[in-house]
Amino acid sequence: MKLKGVILVSALMTVARAAAVVACRAALIAIACTIAVAQTPNLAPITITLTGQSMIRSDVRETAPSAVPVIQELLKGDLVFTNFEATVAEKGETVSEGRGFLAPDGALDALRTMGFNLLSLANNHSFDLKATGIQNTLREVNLRKIVHAGTGNNVAEAVAPGYLHTPKGTIALIASASGLVAPGARATVDRSGVNELRVEAGDKENEATEDLPGAPENIPNPEDSQRILQSIREARQHADLVIVYQHNHVFGKHSFWTIFAERMQERLAPNDWLKKWTHAEVDAGADIIVMHGAPLLHGVEIYRGRPIFYDLGNFIYNLPPVLTAIDEPMTWESVVAYVQFQGKGLQSISFRPIVMNYVGEGQPDIHNAYTNNKFLDTRGLPSPARGTQAGYILQRLADLSQPFDTKLQITGDTAEIKLK
């Protein structure tokens, strides 16, 4: 009987050990599944809305309140991006020389009310109030917790990605500017400023300020380009999608002002150096590249499944009447782009055409480039283009995109890229 008891106890212990092993395995499987679920990317579609540059000079909620709901209707998406084409000036701060695209801090509140939640600060007007303007703008966007990129207290901050966290994923932004960047505006190790991509033509820097007949082809400055590409690679490790912005004024061998004053054909398309450079950015990990600066609509290329918007022109265009070189009918027309990703896969790209009003309220000052009045504040505000005008804008975009083998399908007042 004792032997039978021992055998029974031994059998029960074996069963218990087996049950424990099964329970442990089940627990481990459950933990592994939990981890797997936590690491699985959110596959809910995310919509990224991209506009032209916002050359805003006032708090539009106060100066043109009726325009706000019209603009809001255009800006639907999980992420809504523009370039803040100005610098913040506090009360009493003015500019009497150079370029004076100044805006009150309320302009940032207006942009946020419209729907923008991601801003580039890198452009040729970031330094219009010099270092004071850089500091003003950084302080005010940080106070409002607006995600931004492109300027900083030093070059490391200026090139660093900004990260926008959404329920559908984390989006990184890297921003830079090339051409017409004022002396002293480039961020350095110990100086605040803009993340500048210098462009070289042989042994001379092409700043887009003078004609360079006979100069070699443009190439990005090696130091600047490597810094930007490394920032893209870094962002790739921490974000679900990476947006790279460039504010560019460097075309070929003519100055920016020669190209636009003479209405040269090259103003309508990116130069070869820019196409090579954007491809390098995609190769480094960029998912979307968007540009401004022309300021005209350029074509769209799909490179390795990633869209390159070579220029989206203008969105808010409070342009002083004296700047006639960049004032032609096409500068007052553009599109808003809606890009949808699911995970890492590009799902769709669609467009709505817009038109900005040429004439503001009140009287213009046609002599002083620094005047900020009611005419300027209410000029160049976007609304949907419709009918025949919408068709012309969308067809222009289709024609400009055709050299990149990008095909648009136009349906009424909207268009969509036919993805392969």
Q: Main beta sheet: strand number and arrangement?
A: 9 strands, mixed
Number of strands: 24
Distance between the termini: 80 Å
What is the name of the CATH topology of the largest domain? Purple Acid Phosphatase, chain A, domain 2
Round the mean pLDDT to the nearest integer and report it. Answer: 91
* Radius of gyration, in angstroms, nearest whole number: 26 Å
Residue windows where pLDDT falls under 50 for at least 5 positions: 1-40
User: What is the level 1 CATH name of the largest domain?
Assistant: Alpha Beta
SS-based class: alpha/beta
What fraction, in percent, of the residue positions are helical? 25-40%
CATH superfamily of the largest domain: Metallo-dependent phosphatases
Written account of the structure:
- With 420 residues, the protein is of the alpha/beta class.
- The chain folds into two domains: 40 residues; 374 residues, 4-Layer Sandwich (Purple Acid Phosphatase, chain A, domain 2).
- The protein has eleven helices and 24 strands.
- Strands 1, 3, 6, 7, 20, 21, 22, 23 and 24 form a nine-stranded mixed β-sheet that branches.
- Strand 20 and strand 21 form a beta hairpin.
- The longest helix is centred in the first third of the chain and has 38 residues.
- The protein is globular and about 50 Å long.
- The relative contact order is 0.12.
- The N terminus is likely disordered.
